[in-house]
Please model this.
Amino acid sequence: MNEIYSLHTDRDIQPLEFGQLAALNLWGDAGDFTEERLAGHFAAVDFVAHVRTSRKLLVGYASAISNGLGTVFIDSLITHPEYDRDAIGSLLMQAVLTHFSGQPVYAMPFTDEQQVFRANGFRIYRREMVALAHRNDEAPAVS
Model:
């Protein structure tokens, strides 16, 4: 696409448009992303970047969390599927890396999403880490 994109590092994102982008990436239903949930997310992260088309359509989003001691974790990186090959993920990642210049930045992308991270200099260290999860959203088993 010959689209003109703009990168923003503010939190001027509406719940409905974020929900639509998240739903396109199979993160849940668009209606799951309420104003309260988005406000909670914004309160928890230290950096936000998003990309819009010239028509103001939200086509990419990234957020990062810093522990304040020099370690940064990319919390979210999503792009609109129709704009996937337009380097939006790289643009968002470079915004994070620039904002946290000189600090180690970590990410745990899904296997099928590693390419954009690797293309931007991320690598697997000799001492491999694994992602452990506790699905705290599931009800405990009843005996």
In short: Helices lie at 15-24, 35-44, 88-99, 114-119.
